[in-house]
Write a structure and sequence with these properties.
Helix content: 25-40%
Radius of gyration: 24 Å
Number of helices: 16
Distance between the termini: 23 Å
Strand content: 5-15%
Number of domains: 2
Largest sheet: 3 strands, antiparallel
Shape: globular
Strand order of the largest sheet: 1-2-3
Order of helices and strands: HHEHEHEHHHHHEHHHEHEEEEHHH
Structural class: alpha/beta
Length: 421
Amino acid sequence: MFVTALAANLLAAVRDPRRLAAAPAVSEGRLVSVHEAGLSVTDAPLFPLEAALAALGGEARWPEPTRRLAKLALDLELLSPLPGQVGRLIGPLRRSVRLEIVDYPGEWLLDLPLLALSFEDWSARELARARTVPRARYAEAWLALLAGLDVQAPAEEGAMRRLADAYAAYLRRCRDEGALADLSPGRFLNPDSWEGMAFLLFCPLALPPAASPKAGSVWERMRAHWDEYRRRTRAEFLAPHLARFDAQVVLVDLFRALASGAASFADTQAALAAIAAALRPEPGLLSRLGLERAPPRPVFCATKADYVPASQRGQLAALLRHLVGGEGAVVPLAAVACTRDITLTDDRGRVQDAVEGIVEGGGREAFWFAGGVPAETPEQAWFDRRYDVPRFLPPTPGPDGGLRHVNLDRALTAALPGVLG
C-alpha cells in the first residue's frame, strides 16, 4: 500500500501540489513532471500498480499484501535552484531523477542478523525459544518430530522435508495465531522465487554434546543448507538490492502488537531491535559484511497512524522511537488514510478524541485507545484491555488519482531529502 500511495500521489502532485504539501520540492513547484518508467527485461518483476489502484477504485478493498520482490520505476523532472547571484541570473537547473522502488516482504529483513550466526548458534537460540510461552504450543508438532530424530543418522530427503515443513508451519502459526514477529528464516514465510528449493530443507537441530557431525548425516546436511541459505541471501538480496539502496523505509504495524498482548509486543520489540542494529550505518552488521558503502539511515514508519486521532500521533512516533532507539528517522504514517478524527462524549460529559471510518462488512465505526497510545513499553496491566482493532476499508482514489494520506510526504522527504527536500 505504501508503494501504491507513493506512486499515485507523486503522479497526482504535479497537478495538485496539496497531495504532498510537506515535501518542499512539491509545495515550491519544483516538481515539474512524473511518469511511470519501464524496467529492463532482466530486472525484477514489475510492481502491480494498476491492479492495486483498481482494487481501491473498483471494489474499495485493500490490495494483496507483499509476498514477493517487485520493482517500480518513476522518472521525475525537477527544478534545482542555484545559490547566490548565479541562481538569480540564470534561474534553477532542470534535472532528471530515476526513482526505482523495490518492494519486498518485511520478513526478509529478519534474515540480515542471521548472516552473522553459525548454524549451531541459531539452532540453540531457536530451540530454546520454541519451548517458551506462547511459542511452545505452536511448536508441538515440529518438536514431536525432533524428539524421535537421530541427527547423526544418514540424511534422507523425505524426512528432511517433513522436518522443514513442520518448522515452517510452526513459524506461520506464530505469525498468524500468535501475532509474533521475530521469526526466521524469513523465506520460510515468504519464499518468492526460492519456493521448492532443496536448500530450504533445514530447521534448528542440536548436536549431542561432544559429538562430531558425521558426513552425510541429517545434521551435516542441514548445516550445509543453512550455509547455502546465507550465501543466497547475500548474493540474491543483499548485494543486488539492499547494498544499492539510497533510502530504506521500514514499515512497522505497532497496533497489531499492542492489540495482541504483551508477548506479541515483546516479540515485535526484539525483531525491531535486531533490524535496527543490522541497518545501522556504522558499525552495523551490513557495514561489517564488507559493503562498498554504508547503508542509508533508515526511516521507520509507524503505520496505520489514521487509527488514532492527530492528538495521539506524537505518542505513536515516540513509542516507535523508544523501540528502535536512535537508529534513523521516525514518522507516524498512513499511506492511505481511511478514517477521520471525531470527538465523543461519554455519560459523564468527558470528551474523548477518536477516529471513525467504514469497516469491513459495512457500517461506520468509531475507535480509540483508552488513555492513548503508550509512549514506551507498557506495563502488563495495559495489555489486559485486549483491544479489538477494527479493519477499516480504504477510500477510493480522488479524481486526479491521488490518495488521502497521513505524513506520506514527510516520510518521502525524510527518505529522499536530496530529491524532494
